[in-house]
Specification:
Blueprint (H helix, E strand, L loop, with lengths): L5 H9 L14 H11 L11 E6 L2 H7 L8 H6 L2 E8 L6 H4 L13 H25 L3 E5 L4 H8 L5 E10 L15 H4 L4
Antiparallel strand pairs: 1-2, 2-4, 3-4
């Protein structure tokens, strides 16, 4: 596999920004399906694939989401074309006979709720990161958020399921005009060790 060119690296990392204002452009359902096609191909432990995604697009669903958000996250979310509830499914071990047929991986989680929760959270969070990169690769802008009432989101959108919300992600075509200069990032020597 060859390295990505500078244009691709800019789109995924170097020039991509977190957006909070949005152009009045819809994101069609086929783009959301393409997002999932990319995300599901990225690695998770034992191909466990615990992430679940609720794509909120309709005005009715947005109205239900609004009271779950912190005050500062309401304007940016109400104007975003799509808000994704990135979730983990605590029943993911049930899918392992299909997704990881090479071993009895489901048995690894039998009677181990803490291990199940830890694995679901870690890998769904990883898949949420893949979702951001996939969205950027498809020309979308992203605005990930953790400012919401998890219990309210779960009660409103996930009641009766084994899914639990992890974080929210606004998707669309960002308006770059209000962006301030990129915040500093840490130096390699400050946060990395080679041993």
């Amino acid at each position: 596999m060859s390295a990505l060119d500078a244009t691709a690296l800019d789109a995924l990392f170097l020039e991509a920004r977190t957006h909070w204002q949005w152009q009045d452009r819809a994101v069609d359902d086929s783009t959301l399906e393409r997002l999932h096609t990319l995300v599901k191909m990225a690695p998770t432990s034992a191909n466990c694939q615990p992430a679940r995604f609720v794509f909120i697009k309709s005005p009715e669903a947005k109205a239900k989401l609004e009271p779950c958000l912190t005050e500062g996250n309401r304007p940016k979310t109400m104007t975003a074309p799509v808000t994704v509830i990135v979730c983990e499914d605590l029943a993911f071990p049930e899918t392992l006979p299909t997704l990881f047929p090479h071993a009895d991986a489901k048995a690894w989680f039998d009677g181990k709720p803490a291990f199940t929760e830890e694995t679901a959270f870690r890998n769904a969070t990883l898949q949420g990161g893949y979702l951001i990169l996939a969205a950027r690769a498809l020309g979308l802008d992203c605005g990930p958020m953790s400012g919401f009432d998890q219990a309210k989101v779960d009660a409103t959108f996930l009641e009766g399921t084994t899914w639990r919300s992890n974080f929210l992600l606004n998707l669309g075509y960002g308006d770059p005009t209000p962006l301030f200069p990129r915040s500093p990032r840490p130096a390699f020597a400050d946060v990395c060790r080679i041993v």
